[in-house]
Write a structure and sequence with these properties.
The chain is an alpha/beta fold. It has 11 helices and 13 strands. It has 2 domains: 214 residues, 3-Layer(aba) Sandwich (Rossmann fold), CATH 3.40.50.300; 64 residues, Alpha-Beta Plaits (2-Layer Sandwich). Pfam families: ABC_tran.
Length: 317
C-alpha cells in the first residue's frame, strides 16, 4: 500500500489545472476551469450529466488531450509524459472491466505484471489488497458470480496494485445497494488514511459529503462553486430547511404567501421549501400567517440543496 503522504499546505499539488479547456468540434465540454489537488486529499467533481466531469477526468487520466489551457499531473505534462504519469495512477472506471475468465486473485496479479512487478511481488500485493477490500476468502473464485459490490471492491483493489500516487474513481458506487455503498465508502476512507490521494466524480450528494475534503460543483463545463462540503452549505444554503406540504393545493400559490420567511422560498411540484436559519421559528412564522400545512419537516441543509440551487432542477440528458 502507499506510504502515507503529507497534505501540508506547502506540498506541491498533484494536479494543477489553469484555464483547462476540452472541445469536441463545436461543443465545449470543459470551459476554462482552474483546479488544484493536494497530496493526501480526497477531491471530488460533482455535477449533473453533461457538466464536464468525465471529460476532466479523462484529461487527468492522460487518455484525452486538453484543447487549451495548462494541466500538470504529478509535476509532469500529460501530453508529453502520459506514459510516465499513467504508471503512477490507479484508475477505477465507471463500468467494471474485470476479466471474467480469471480468478479474483489472477485479476490482480495479471494486472500487476503490466507494471513490471515480479510474480512473487504481484502475488504479495494481490493478497494484501484482497485482505484490505475484504475479498481474501474469494481469492480463488471466478469473477462472474461476485456481487456488484464485490466486483467494485475488486476493481478498486486492482487500481491500487501499482501503489499509485493518485487514484481516480469515476462514479465509484453507481448501481450498488446501500449496504455495498457504505462498505465501499469505508474502504475508500481507509485508503485515504493510508495516504492515498483520491479524485472522484459522483452524482451522489451523500457520497460527496462522506468522502470529499474539497470538491467543485461543475455545470455546463464550468466550475459553479468550490470548497469543503460544509463551507459550500454555509455559503450557498441556510442551516435548516422546512419542507411544507399543503395537501392537494398548488405549492406555487403557497410559496407566494410564505415570501419573506427565512432566506429563500422555493416551490416544488409537491411541497414548498423554506430555507431558514431556524427551522422551528420558520414553522411558527408559517402558522402565524394563518397557514396550516398538512405536514412540515424541519431538516438540516445538505449538499443536495447547494447542488440544486447552483445547477437547477431541470433534467439534463
Amino acid at each position: 500500500m502507499p506510504t502515507p503522504l503529507s497534505a501540508s499546505p506547502a506540498a506541491e499539488p498533484l494536479i494543477r489545472a489553469r484555464g483547462l479547456v476540452k472541445r469536441f468540434g463545436d461543443f465545449t465540454a470543459v470551459d476554462g476551469i482552474d483546479v488544484e489537488v493536494a497530496p493526501g486529499e480526497a477531491f471530488g467533481f460533482l455535477g449533473p450529466n453533461g457538466a464536464g466531469k468525465s471529460s476532466t477526468m479523462r484529461m487527468i487520466g492522460c487518455v484525452s488531450s486538453p484543447t487549451a489551457g495548462e494541466l500538470s499531473i504529478l509535476g509532469m505534462d500529460p501530453v508529453r509524459d502520459g506514459a510516465r504519469i499513467r504508471a503512477r495512477l490507479g484508475v477505477c472506471p465507471q463500468q467494471d472491466n474485470l476479466d471474467v475468465d480469471l480468478t479474483v486473485r489472477e485479476n490482480l496479479t495479471t494486472y500487476a505484471r503490466y507494471f513490471g512487478l515480479s510474480r512473487r511481488e504481484a502475488r504479495r500485493r494481490a493478497d494484501e489488497l484482497l485482505e484490505f477490500v475484504q475479498l481474501a476468502d474469494r481469492a480463488d473464485s471466478k469473477v462472474e458470480p461476485l456481487s456488484g459490490g464485490m466486483k467494485r471492491r475488486l476493481t478498486i483493489a486492482r487500481a491500487m496494485v501499482n501503489e499509485p500516487d493518485l487514484v481516480l474513481l469515476d462514479e465509484p458506487t453507481t448501481g450498488l445497494d446501500p449496504q455495498a455503498r457504505h462498505l465501499l465508502w469505508e474502504r475508500l476512507f481507509r485508503l485515504k488514511q493510508r495516504g492515498a490521494t483520491l479524485v472522484l466524480t459522483t452524482h451522489y450528494m451523500d457520497e460527496a459529503e462522506q468522502l470529499c475534503d474539497r470538491l467543485v460543483v461543475m455545470d455546463g463545463g464550468r466550475i459553479a462553486a468550490e470548497g469543503s462540503p460544509r463551507s459550500l452549505i454555509e455559503t450557498y444554503s441556510s442551516p435548516e430547511v422546512v419542507e411544507a406540504r399543503f395537501g392537494d393545493a398548488e405549492p406555487a400559490e403557497y410559496a407566494e404567501k410564505l415570501a419573506g420567511i427565512g432566506d429563500r422560498v422555493e416551490a416544488l411540484p409537491d411541497r414548498v421549501l423554506v430555507y431558514a436559519a431556524d427551522g422551528d421559528a420558520a414553522v411558527a412564522a408559517i402558522h402565524a400567517r394563518g397557514l396550516a400545512p398538512s405536514t412540515t419537516l424541519v431538516r438540516r441543509s445538505s449538499l443536495e440543496d447547494v447542488f440544486l440551487h447552483l445547477t437547477g432542477r431541470t433534467l439534463v440528458d
